[in-house]
Amino acid sequence: MKQTPCKKSTAPRHFGLWSTLTVFLVATLFFALAYPHHLHYQEQYQLFLFDASYALDVISLPGGLADWLGRFCTQFFIYAWVGAVIIGLLLAAVHWFSLRLLGRSGLTLLSALPTALLGAYLMNENALLGAAWAVLIVLAVGAWLVSDQAGFGILCDKKERVIDGRCLGRG
User: Fold this and answer.
1) What's the confidence (pLDDT) of residue 67?
2) What are the pLDDT digits (tens) for 11-27?
C-alpha cells in the first residue's frame, strides 16, 4: 500500500494559542463585568467542605469528581473576578482540547462549538460548574488518547496506515 503524507492543517501557525487566549479574555471579561451577579448567586447555594468524608461522599456518585471540582471552584465565586478567571480558564481549556482533537482532522473552526455551547450553558444561573469540569475531563482524556504519549496516537510516520491522506494510526 502506498503511503502518502498526512494533510497539514490550513490554520495559521499560532491559531490555537491566539484563539484560546481570546476565549479566556472574552469569557473572563464577560463574567467579571457584565455578569458578576451570576457568580455571587452561584456561590451562595454551594457548600464545599475540606473533609475526606465529604470528598468521598461526593466522588462516590456518578460524575462525582467533576461535581467535586465544580464545588471547589464555586467557593471562590464570592470574589467576582476570581470566579470570572476560573470560568475563563475552564472555557479556554475546553477550547484548547477541542482544538487538539478536531484540528488533526482539519475541522479547526469547528473546535469553537463546544466552547460556545458550554459558555452559553454557564450563563444559566442554575447551571453548575461541575458540567464544565465533566466536559473538560472528557476532552482531556480524548486528546490524550489520540496523542503520541498514549502509545496508540495518530502519528504520521512509516509505521502507520494512511488512507486518503489521513492518518489512521498504527496498524
Assistant:
1) 95
2) 556 777 888 999 999 99
Around Cβ 4, how many Cβ atoms within 10 Å? 12
Q: Which of 33-42, 73-82, 118-127, 146-155 has the lowest mean pLDDT?
A: 146-155
C-alpha cell at 43: 456561590
Q: What is the DSSP letter of 35?
A: -
Residue 5, pLDDT score: 52
Q: For the chain, what's the residue count?
A: 171
Place of cell 469547528: 110
Helix (H/G/I), strand (E/B), else coil: 160: strand
pTM, rounded to two decimals: 0.79
What's the one-letter identity of residue 22?
T
Chain Cα centroid distance, residue 29: 19
55 is written with which cell numbers? 470528598
Question: What backbone torsions phi and psi does residue 161 show, to the nearest 5 degrees?
Answer: -85, 135
Decide if 102 contacts 111 (C-beta within 8 A).
Answer: yes
Question: Strand (E) positions, the chain?
Answer: 160-163, 166-170
Concatenating the DSSP letter of every residue in 71-100 gives HHHHGGGGSHHHHHHHHHHHHHHHHHHHHH
Cell numbers for 26, please give them. Answer: 472574552
Answer yes or no: is pLDDT of 72 > 70: yes
First to last CA, the chain: 12
